[in-house]
Design a protein that fits this description.
By secondary structure, the chain is an alpha+beta fold. It has helices at about 1-20, 45-65, 90-105, 110-115, 155-165; strands spanning about 70-75, 80-85, 135-140, 145-150.
Length: about 170
């Protein structure tokens, strides 16, 4: 009786393994197009970077959030920075890092956060990645001219302020 039970368990296990092995790994799927394939454009000007920061700060101020806001150009170089009164010091570098991640990888940092939440931790092996929302590429006429990064609040707060700053581009 025990031998039959062991044989049944082994058969079930092998059947499960065979089924699991037949499933395709999503990382092996080859997309038809490059994801996030936005061409790099000319770097954002200081005046436009400052306008994006002003809009992000206005949004954060309206809501009572004290944030740090950074804008980098299309080469990931810092163009402008704003620190609201009372914004935490540790978030200065984080705001810059979020902006650099968004421009280098041509996608919002929220994409990395979502991947990590789904269990795709391979993104943590990439250099210069921040897996927290609050970094948004700045795109004008289909070209990436820079990125804005906000830090100091919850990720959703940082992202909302960044969206206000990004909305100034193309106007």
């Amino acid at each position: 009786m025990a031998l039959r039970l062991r044989a049944a368990i082994l058969s079930a296990f092998l059947g499960f393994c065979g089924t699991a092995g037949a499933q395709q790994n999503p990382l092996d799927v080859i997309p038809d197009k490059m994801p996030f394939d936005v061409p790099y454009g000319a770097p954002i000007s200081l005046a436009r970077a400052q306008a994006a920061i002003a809009a992000a700060i206005a949004e954060a101020g309206k809501r009572g959030w004290a944030l740090n806001v950074a804008v980098v150009d299309s080469g990931a170089n810092l163009v402008a920075f704003g620190r609201m009164d009372g914004a935490q010091l540790g978030s200065i570098a984080v705001s810059e890092h979020k902006a650099r991640t968004a421009v280098k990888f041509r996608r919002p940092t929220k994409a990395f956060e979502a991947a990590i939440q789904k269990g795709d931790i391979r993104v943590l092996s990439l250099d210069d990645v921040v897996g927290s929302r609050g970094g948004i590429p700045l795109i004008e006429e289909g070209k990436l001219i820079g990125a804005i990064g906000c830090s100091g609040g919850a990720g959703s707060q940082d992202e909302a302020a960044c969206e206000a700053g990004a909305a100034t581009i193309g106007k």
